[in-house]
Design brief:
The chain is mainly α. The protein contains 2 helices and 2 strands. The chain has helices spanning 52-58, 66-83; strands spanning 33-34, 39-40. The chain binds iron/sulfur cluster (2 copies).
């Protein structure tokens, strides 16, 4: 499973994700993101686009090995975390 550290930043930066355009509050934050506990209010019913492993299974296995797909996703996570100056403890590490 993708080693998400639950930083919550992907859910606050959905403006460029077409599949989530109806979820965008207008500032890039998903309407289902719970700012108080930093989690998804519809976690068990969230769309596939929000699930790294599911997206690999249904689409990205055609283009990447699973490890490379994880690495690409982790780059996005870690870049967001750098932008927000998040503590290093949230860094997503793949095979390190
Ligand atoms: S940005 Fe990455 S580490 Fe943070 S919640 Fe999203 S998937 Fe998890
Ligand atoms: S539906 Fe949930 S997991 Fe998906 S972007 Fe919104 S808050 Fe995040």
């Amino acid at each position: 499973m993708f080693p998400c550290t639950s930083c919550g930043l992907c859910c606050q930066n959905i403006a460029d994700i077409t599949e989530l355009k109806d979820f965008n509050l207008g500032n890039g934050v998903c309407k289902h993101f719970n700012l108080i506990n930093n989690s998804c209010n519809i976690y068990d019913n969230r769309p596939d686009i929000c699930k790294v492993d599911k997206m690999f299974e249904i689409k990205y296995f055609k283009y990447f090995t699973k490890k490379d797909f994880y690495i690409e996703n982790a780059k996005v996570c870690n870049e967001l975390q750098n932008q927000y100056k998040l503590n290093d403890s949230y860094k997503v590490k793949i095979g390190e």
